[in-house]
Automatic annotation (TrEMBL):
Domain HTH rpiR-type residues, every copy: 6-82
InterPro entries membership: Homeodomain-like_sf, HTH_RpiR, RpiR-like, RpiR-like_SIS, SIS_dom, SIS_dom_sf, WH-like_DNA-bd_sf
Gene Ontology terms describing biological process: carbohydrate derivative metabolic process
Keyword annotations from UniProtKB, A to Z: DNA-binding, Transcription, Transcription regulation
Keyword Transcription in record: yes
GO molecular-function terms, A-Z: carbohydrate derivative binding; DNA binding; DNA-binding transcription factor activity
Bias kind Basic and acidic residues: ranges: 293-307
Native source species: Ciceribacter naphthalenivorans
Protein name (database record): RpiR family transcriptional regulator
Superkingdom, taxonomy of origin: Bacteria
PANTHER family referenced in this protein's UniProt entry, alphabetically: GLUCOKINASE (PTHR30514), RPIR-FAMILY TRANSCRIPTIONAL REGULATOR (PTHR30514:SF18)
Lineage: Bacteria, Pseudomonadati, Pseudomonadota, Alphaproteobacteria, Hyphomicrobiales
Length: 329
């Protein structure tokens, strides 16, 4: 079973209220450029934070580590995990793969990801993000990386139906300045950024935040550098027995937000949906229900008796394939 451990940043945040003034100063320094800020010598870390080396030693023990060496070892392990490429991820899982079917192993990993994520997810932060996304006075922008761009597009596709003033940003970073130009203070930027974090995302977040834009971040347990600029951050467990990280739980949180936003102003959402359905009808974008097509064809047959009426019969060769039940052992 995949049990993603707490990161050092999680531990620091959990103990923050119990730290002394100097230790809080050190903690803020470590989190400001995490995890790189903690990879130097104990003297360097102390100097960068403006505290003494004994303060560093005391704080890491207060966090539960035996000493600075163990504290730093955890940071190195996290850094290695965030930089893992697909081959390294696959080899790690394959070396420990039990003799059960991949469906069972994958399902177990995903369900554990769900439990881990929900246990750490702050409902108040979720509600706060939903309120930002529900505010029709704010424009909402969506952007993702090479893989997570699909999640950004999925989120945007639903949100543009629910509310106006939404935009999907291109994966081409050269187009981002034009998007930032259109952003106003109070607008919302939804960013998807998981390991191996894309450097341009942090720059985008920094510039947008400086302009008063609220940032909602979807990331992983190790946390994208964008997190320090985010108003709301969803750290989602993504480990799976695969060369690729799993997006299942990220999509779950996205869909929960979609429901929260559409329910916040359902009358307006329903009106937009009805209007959109009318546009789809005009564009003949979707197939009509079977019964409706039959009725319309019947009306056409009555008005044009000399023309043979079309049928709803499925053409030979297009019959549905017989179902095959797959039994997982």
């Amino acid at each position: 079973m995949n049990n993603t451990p707490k990161t050092v940043s999680d531990v620091i945040r959990a103990h923050f209220d119990g730290l002394t003034r100097a230790e809080r100063q050190l903690a803020e320094s470590l989190l400001d450029n995490y995890p790189v800020s903690g990879l130097g010598s104990i003297t360097t870390v102390a100097e960068n934070a403006g505290v003494s080396t004994p303060t560093v030693a005391r704080m890491v023990q207060k966090l539960g580590y035996k000493g600075y060496a163990e504290f730093q070892a955890h940071l190195h392990h996290e850094l290695e995990a965030t930089l893992s490429n697909p081959i390294a991820k696959h080899d790690r899982w394959a070396s420990n793969a039990p003799g059960t079917h991949i469906l069972n192993r994958f399902a177990e990993a995903v369900m554990n990801n769900m439990r881990q994520t929900l246990s750490a997810l702050d409902p108040q932060s979720f509600d706060g993000a939903a309120r930002l996304l529900s505010d029709r006075k704010r424009s909402v922008y969506f952007v993702g990386g090479r893989i997570t761009g699909a999640l950004a597009e999925y989120f945007f596709t639903h949100m543009q139906v629910i509310r106006p003033k939404t935009a999907l940003m291109s994966s081409n970073t050269s187009a981002w300045p034009q998007n930032v130009l259109n952003m106003s203070a109070g607008d919302v930027l939804v960013i998807f950024d998981i390991r191996r974090y894309e450097a341009d995302m942090e720059t985008l977040a920094e510039v947008a935040r400086a302009g008063g834009v609220e940032i909602i971040l979807f990331t992983d347990p190790w946390s994208s550098p964008v997190a320090k600029h985010a108003s709301h951050c969803f750290r989602v467990d993504i480990e799976a027995p695969s060369a690729w990280d799993s997006s299942v739980v990220t999509l779950f949180v996205v869909e929960a937000l979609i429901e929260a936003v559409q329910s916040s102003a359902w009358d307006e959402t329903r009106e937009r949906m009805n209007t959109l359905e009318g546009l789809f009808e005009q564009a003949r974008l979707f197939r009509k229900p079977r019964g409706q097509k039959t009725r319309e064809r019947g009306e056409q047959a009555r008005t044009k008796p000399d023309e043979p009426a079309a049928t709803d019969d499925v053409a030979e060769g297009c019959q549905p394939a017989p179902s095959h039940k797959y039994h997982v052992s």
